[in-house]
Amino acid sequence: MNTFQETETPTRPATLAMSGISKYYAGVAALTDVSVEIHPGEVHAILGENGAGKSTLMNIASGQTPPSSGSIAMGGQVFDSLTPTLAGSLGVAIVHQHPAVLGDMTVEENLRVALPSSVFSGQGDSDAVAQSLLTGVGLHVHLKDRVETLTLAQKHLLEIAKAFARKPTLLILDEPTAPLGREAVDLLFGRVREAVAAGTSVVYITHRLAEVRELADRVTVLRDGKVRGTANVDEITDDALLALIVGRTLESTFPAKIDLPMDAQLNFDVAGISGPGFADVSIAGRRGEIIGVAGVVGNGQSELLRALAGLESFDGTVTIGGTAYTPRELLHRAAFMPADRHREGLMMSLNVRENAAISALKKFRSTYLLSRGKELDAVTESLTELSVKAPSLDAPVGALSGGNQQKVVIARALLSDPVLLIADEPTQGVDVGARVEIYRILREASANGIPVIIASSDAKELEGLCDRVIVMSRGHLVRTLSGDEITEQAIVMAAVSSTTHTIQLAMDGKTKARSTGFRRFLQGDYAPSALLVAVIVVLGGYVLTQNPQYLGSFNIFSMLMTACGLGAIALGQTIPLLLGGIDLSVGPLAGFLVVIASFFVNDGASAATIALGLLLMIATAATVGLVNAVLIRYLKFTPIAATLTLYIALGGFAFLLRDTQGGYINTDFTKNLSTSVGPIPVVFIVLVAIALLAEYFLRKRRWGWNLRAVGSNEESARSVGVPVNRTVILGYVLTSLFVFLGAIILMTQIGIGDPAAGSSYTLTSITAVVLGGTSLLGGRGTFIGSLLGAILLTQVLNATTVLGLGSVFQYVFQGLLILIAAIVYSVARSRRRKAAA
């Protein structure tokens, strides 16, 4: 059987009609002449193995990927290709298999950046609207929680909430239930049925045939990038579907279980272990047995597995093959397959070979060096046995389908010769054919004497695969099943009928902690700013005890005026760092602008000449920012390479205009910029106002959300419709305009055109921004923190002078500040990531 019978043709035009769609990557066909129609008010399931082209087809439909050929018709309009913004305007919403969420931003900001303003306008309090969107999909988190602290299931629910909020005419769901528990799945299916009843068309991509039967009206099967047919769900059997999906008939999904005598020797014994999220768990297993861990999602299963992998400390004993292992020893000897393969299972910047080999490098050692031949032979053999489909060993692991990525994770685990193999949701997002192979691999590993522990939210999977199943509820082991006792009904009944109390140190406790305002503040962007304020006050208090003149009007004015020039440039430097880039040209640009000013803003110059000079400075600054952005976005320079090019060029241009100092700045101009209110320079007051205004736009307006979204995750930002190129270009132009403000202040301080002035501001501005808490990885930071960082640096320099210390101490203190800030922020972020994991 190669095709299904033709389905009944609807009387209304299709919501989505894709005709002759083909997609090629480097000459390799991902889709070939695919045509599919989605009818109004139907749930249309798309089935196929991993790599069959399902997600690629839906990425084309949602504007994430342009087709190589073919056409797309929506609402009577025909397009060659779509963009995410255009698709959204046509009523398309998509829930990605890997959530397109922005970890550095809050839950509320993720909703804001992804949804049109109309969702929140005209409906009362916007926070209440946002909370109702979350409640509608069963997501109970605080709007101010940072998304990186959410679990994978919560991120999926957030993605689903964004999709339903659009009230789409076409809703695309790509493996939406993979990490969800039964209660969340039931709620999702209810929302889908409500949407369909209201006229929404739904495309449902899944690997679970039971879900197709429960939800879908029609089904289309893809294999090897081609359509194998379309039919009504009630007119095709599961066996026929499976045969078309995998191209062959599967005799059995699960491998045969091993038949062991009851007195067989134990090779795995866990006695009374307790840790974060679970207490007093005991497990015993014999050679050849696979042990399953069941329970409602979030009841300590993942925490138990992480402890057995040595990723969490625990009390109690773990004995494998007669040898007791500590958490530290398990960390090096156990192999762990995490549920979130993208964040924890794979290194997405490395290729297939590197991901598979990285845990087994000692095996490939030849004397003191690694043997490339040994590595290639071992990795090739392992990936071949696992039937991994990849263009080559050196292909990026991100280019593989989900099932093949999971096989790479398994290959790495087996290559490390583990004493214990632990798998958390091993078949999540994996097609039926790949599942069969994964089950076989796990069974063979167990038969070879490696204890295998599996946690799964699919009770049917545990029933078919495992020889022994422990059921957990609220961190406690509530029942152990073995042999014929292991049935889907028994597993579910044990999980939902338990009356145990929650472990207070478990995930429940973490959720409570995450809901407190103080914890959110510590995890937020303003904690570094508060720390800087404390350091500034303490340092000022100490210097005052050593020199009573420290808080004199002259010293305060001098210190704040000096901080203004650095502060303005630091505000500009904040923008590219938020974007995940950097701008090394800010220092030379400031010096070059001062040199330009020295030809126009002179004593005796007319107002028109001065105005012309200022306009020329603004135009130069904007041009430099634009050139930086074009080099980065369109010519594919790295931010360092692009801005370093301008760093060198601007320094050279400055010396071409003036090879020595010259051109005194207009005295009246300097005097006007040096006015003060008491000891506080007016320029400083203006700069604080600008910083506050920039902070407002960063937190409360789409420009700021887009900026931080691009820095947090560019691909996710593009997926939710952020205009990435435009955001980056505007960001670098604004950076240079902030440098213009810094140059205005700088030229009043030095009073002369100096081609060497400004270069030092590049590193000091980066230092100020980093001290203020802006991440070098992008996505998080504050303008307020950058200004405070500039003030602290200036204060340190001033303090060394007031205390009579040499210039060496200036560099020592700056270096110590940077080192302390880097350590504090890095440790805090790593702890947040660990807690989230």
TrEMBL record:
Recorded topology in the membrane: Multi-pass membrane protein
An MF annotation (GO) of this entry: ATP binding
Membrane-crossing residue ranges in chain numbering: 526-544, 550-571, 607-630, 637-657, 677-698, 728-752, 758-777, 784-805, 811-828
Keywords tagged on the record: ATP-binding, Cell membrane, Membrane, Nucleotide-binding, Repeat, Transmembrane, Transmembrane helix, Transport
SMART domains found in the cross-reference section: AAA
Highest taxon, organism lineage: Bacteria
All copies of domain ABC transporter, residue ranges: 16-249, 260-499
Subcellular location as annotated: Cell membrane
Name recorded for this polypeptide: Ribose transport system ATP-binding protein
Organism: Subtercola frigoramans
